[in-house]
Amino acid sequence: MTPSEQSPAPAARPLTGKEPLFIVLNKGSGRGDAQVLQDTIRTILNEAGRRYELMPVGDPSRLTDLARQAVKRAQDEQGVVIAAGGDGTLNAVASTVLGQGVPFGILPQGTFNYFGRTYGISQETEVALRGFLQGTIRPVQVGLLNGRLFLVNASLGLYPQLLEDREAYKQRYGRRRWVALWSGLVTLWRQPRQLGLQLEFEGKSRSLRSPTLVVGNNKLQLEHIGIENDELDRNRLIAMAARPVGTLALYGLLVRGLLSRMGDAENVISFAFDKLTVGVRGRRRVKVAMDGEISWMDTPLEFKVASDRLPLVVPADPELLDRS
C-alpha cells in the first residue's frame, strides 16, 4: 500500500516561517547551471537567516533515496522538503512527501512549469524562493496511475513517444520551446500506431481505438489546449483521446492545441472521472509517461485521484503569481 492510499494521513503543520528547509536538488535536470542554482539558493536563504540543507544529487537513481532522507529529517525537525529540478524531480520528491505530514515546496526548473505556474510559483528561482519564504500551505490534488503519483498528466501511446523524441531533440538542440514543437511535427509524421483500448469508468464500459490516451490533472495545461477543466475542482481527472485519424488530421489537432481550441475538435474525446481502468488489447505491458518521465507498466492501468492532498507551499502575496 502506498502512502497516498493509507488513511488517515497526518496533516501538514501550519508554517511558522522558521522551519528548516531540506532542499533536494537534481544537478542533472532543468534549464540552467546547477552551481548557479545552488549559489542563488544559498545567497537568498543566508540573507533571510533561514536554516537549510542543500541535498544535491547527480545520479537520478539516488533521487528517491535522498528524498526519503529529506522527509525523515523534516519529520524529525519540523521542517519542509523542497524539490529543485525539472518535472521528473518534482514528481519523484512529491511522491515521497505525499501522506507523510510534511510541507512541500518546489523550485521548478522545467521547460513549461505547468504545475508551478498553476499555483503561482515562478520559474525564476529567486522569485520562487522569496515567494516560498512568504508562503502558506495549500492542499492540492494529485493523480495516481497504478499507485504512482502524477502532478500534471499521465499518458500512454503517442504522447509518451512525443516526449521521448522531444527529449532526444533537446539533448541535441537545446531546451527551447521551438525544439519541442519541431520534434512533435517529426513524430506525428511517422504515423503512430492505433491502440485498442477498453475503458471502464463510473459503471460504464467503452471500447476505443486511439493513438493515445492522456489523463490531465492541471488546469493551466488543459486551459492552454482548450479542454474544459472545471471538473478538476470536483476531485476528478480529465481523460483525452484522439479518434483514429491520419497524419494531416493529427497536425490539425496540434494546431488546435496551440490555439487553445482542442476541445472543439470533432476528433477529440474528453471526459471527467474519479477512477478509470484501461485495458490495452494485445498488451500486457505498455509504455507510459508521468510528468514527462517514461516507464513501462503492467495492464490494466488504473487512473484515479489520490485520497491524500499534497501540502504545497504557495506564495501568500498575489503579486508573485506567474501564470505567463
From TrEMBL:
Gene3D superfamilies for the chain: 2.60.200.40, Probable inorganic polyphosphate/atp-NAD kinase, domain 1
Signal peptide: none
UniProt KW keywords: Kinase, Transferase
Xref: InterPro entries: ATP-NAD_kinase_N, Diacylglycerol_kinase_cat_dom, Lipid_Phosphate_FormReg, NAD/diacylglycerol_kinase_sf
EC number(s) on file: 2.7.1.-
Protein origin, superkingdom: Bacteria
Name recorded for this polypeptide: Lipid kinase YegS
Naturally occurring in which organism (per UniProt): Achromobacter animicus
Gene name per UniProt: yegS
